[in-house]
Design brief:
With 333 residues, this protein is α/β, with parallel strands linked by helices. Helices cover 43% and strands 14% of the residues.
Length: 333
């Protein structure tokens, strides 16, 4: 990946955001079935979890997920360098530093969005990682903290961190309110200010600038790609995953694939459930939860979703569950 040349085939052009409890390797397997080109991100993994915990549990992923990026949470340069090196050794295509999460738990660890108040520390963290890995080191951040709404705040942050070797910035176009709002409210309440991200690109034309926040349609994505290098999609991509099936043709110049159907994706996910159960003892329900939006808005989808989310069926073979889930679809046809 070359952050100096964000072309139509660049992984930063379209990506799925790192989302805690959602974008695990099973979710990413689904998303890769739907789009060959979109860049996929892990959930945030803290440096403490890797230094003191089960590295394989946190870093294992399926080779078909490429391109895939590891998002780290931390604020100690040496720890981040160690974990970035681990990420590269495990085969990740990018190391991303979280400077956007506003949760109190993350704040207690002195990382996430509160790091925006310490741009030189972020620069030190980035340099420590850049010095030990060959893959790109990127930063995901907000446009401001609490009631600080000046453009100069985010401009100075990007300027300082870019001098340390970061060439790719993914900007969530909302402030992070560190007090008084839950993480969910922080994704909805602070106003979106896309114009600040556009201004960053104009001021730093040599950097790759991608935008995140509030996009739900292809028209909106295309509008942003007319001004920026990339768009990161979050909740809409998760709750309506079939949207990803249109991305390669719409945004990467690929011909439409008539063999890519919801039925084909469901069959591949069912095969994956069987494989995961055999290799890792993974219950099919841990995988199926990520594809519950696959038939969003279609006739029979409510009952189909109920079958795949019914834990009373967890003893059944996934192929039998799929057959049961298809009964309401046939009835609705």
């Amino acid at each position: 990946m070359n952050p100096e040349n964000p072309s139509s085939s660049s992984p930063w052009r379209l990506s799925v955001a790192p989302m805690m409890d959602w974008t695990d390797r099973h979710c990413r397997h689904l998303h890769r079935l739907l789009s060959r080109h979109a860049l996929l991100y892990t959930e945030m993994v803290t440096t403490g979890a890797l230094i003191h915990g089960d590295v394989a549990r946190h870093l294992r992923f399926n080779t078909e997920e490429h391109p895939v990026a590891l998002q780290l949470g931390g604020s100690e340069p040496a720890d981040l360098a160690h974990c970035a090196r681990l990420g590269e050794q495990w085969g990740y295509d990018e190391i991303n530093l979280n400077c956007g999460c506003p949760s109190e738990r993350v704040q207690r660890g002195a990382f996430g969005a509160c790091l925006m108040n310490e741009p030189q520390l972020v620069a030190d963290c980035v340099k420590a990682m850049v010095d030990v890995v060959k893959v790109p080191v990127t930063v995901k951040h907000r446009i401001g903290i609490d009631k600080t709404e000046s453009y100069e705040f985010v401009r100075d942050f990007v300027g300082t961190v870019s001098e340390a070797g970061c060439r790719v910035f993914i900007v969530h176009a909302r402030n992070a309110w560190l007090q008084g709002l839950s993480p969910k409210e922080n994704r909805e309440v602070p106003p979106l200010r896309y114009e600040l991200v556009h201004r960053l690109k104009r001021e730093f034309p040599g950097l790759t600038i991608a935008i995140n926040g509030g996009f739900t349609t292809g028209v909106q994505v295309a509008e942003q790609l007319g001004q920026l290098d990339g768009v990161m999609l979050g909740r809409e991509a998760y709750h309506n995953p079939w949207w990803l099936a249109s991305w390669d043709a719409a945004f990467f110049g690929e011909p439409e694939d008539p063999s890519l159907t919801r039925e084909w994706v469901e069959e591949r996910m069912t095969e994956y459930m069987v494989r995961e159960a055999a290799e890792h003892g993974t219950p099919w329900s841990s995988i199926a939860r990520h594809m519950l939006g696959l038939r969003h808005g279609m006739a029979g989808s409510r009952r189909w979703r109920q079958v795949w989310s019914d834990h009373r069926l967890k003893g059944m073979h996934p192929c039998d569950v799929m057959a049961l889930a298809h009964e309401p679809l046939r009835d609705a046809a």
